[in-house]
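Run log // design_07
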């Protein structure tokens, strides 16, 4: 997955926007103002921080040691840093991004979730 493919996929979800609150080189992808992905989009290797269920986070880190690690500068219980350099299947990376988006949406107030469903 290239940086542009990562950006395009993150922005493909309903009500998603890209923001740069930390620095111009750090892309933050948000749904209704809540972050679900963060990436140094021009870094090599390309990495993305993604929200994850705590039990799944531990399992993924063990299963993909060296490719999925505790979230860099994030709450290590709820975030993973995923290396996006071709060693992980693109399909898995897409699933992890979608899971992160879904977790954030699930935490939104009911009215906002309903608005997303209609959007």
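design_07 sequence
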């Amino acid at each position: 997955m290239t940086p542009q493919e990562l950006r395009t996929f993150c922005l493909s979800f309903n009500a998603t926007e890209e923001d740069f609150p930390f620095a111009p080189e750090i892309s933050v992808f948000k749904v209704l103002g809540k972050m679900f992905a963060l990436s140094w989009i021009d870094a090599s290797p390309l990495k993305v921080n993604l929200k994850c269920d705590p039990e799944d986070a531990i399992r993924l880190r063990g299963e993909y040691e060296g490719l999925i690690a505790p979230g860099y500068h994030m709450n290590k219980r709820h975030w993973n840093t995923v290396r996006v350099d071709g060693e992980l299947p693109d399909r898995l990376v897409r699933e992890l991004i979608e899971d992160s988006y879904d977790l954030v949406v699930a935490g939104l107030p009911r009215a906002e979730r309903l608005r997303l469903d209609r959007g």
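The mean pLDDT is 93.
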